[in-house]
Give the backbone structure.
Amino acid sequence: DVKVTQSSRYLVKRTGEKVFLECVQDMDHENMFWYRQDPGLGLRLIYFSYDVKMKEKGDIPEGYSVSREKKERFSLILESASTNQTSMYLCASSLPGQGGSFTFATFGSGTRLTVV
Amino acid sequence: KNEVEQSPQNLTAQEGEFITINCSYSVGISALHWLQQHPGGGIVSLFMLSSGKKKHGRLIATINIQEKHSSLHITASHPRDSAVYICAVRVRQGGAYNFNKFYFGSGTKLNVKP
C-alpha cells in the first residue's frame, strides 16, 4: 500500500527549540508539500519541492525552512519554535506535472505539534 | 475575508439523513476539489469539478461557475461518513513551474449518529 509517512503523530516542544518534522513517501513522487492546518483557517501551504534540492515558498514560509536531500524525504524545520507554530502539520506528495492537484496527491496522517 | 467560505462549520445528522455542505468562493478558478479528512488526519480527494455535477456512490457534488458556488450532498448518511469535509479551489498560477495555487475552506465537521 503506497503511502506518505510522517515520523511523529504528536510532538511537544519548548519555545526556542529547533524542530524537525520528517516526511517520507514511497511512490517515487517528484512533488512534495508541507501544509499547516488551523481551526477556522483551513490548510495553508508552507513550502513545496518539485525535485531533489529544489524548494519553493508557499503562502506562509516565515519561521520555517525545508530540506530535500533525497527524493523520498522532505523535512520541515522550525529554526526556533514559537507558540504560534502550534498546529497540525500535513505532508503530501504528488506526481510530476500535476502541480499539486489533489486528485493525484497523497497525504500523510499529520503531526500535531504543540509548542509550550 | 477568506477566498473560500464553507457552511455550516459543524453538522450533526442522524443516520439516513440527506446532508448538504456548501462552498462559496470569490476568485476565478480552474477547478474545485472536495476533500475528506478522517479523524486520523489523512486527506483524500472525493471530487474534482470544473463544471456541472459528479456522482460517486452516495456522494454528489455540483458546481455553478456563474454563481461561484458548489455543494456536496450525501444521501442516506452513515456514521462512517463522519469526517471533516474541505472545499479547495484551484487557481492557475504562471511561472516557470506550472504549480497550481489552492485556496481552502476551513472545513465542515460532520458527525452522523447511529
In short: The mean pLDDT of chain B is 90. Chain B touches chain A through 24 residues (CB under 8 Å).
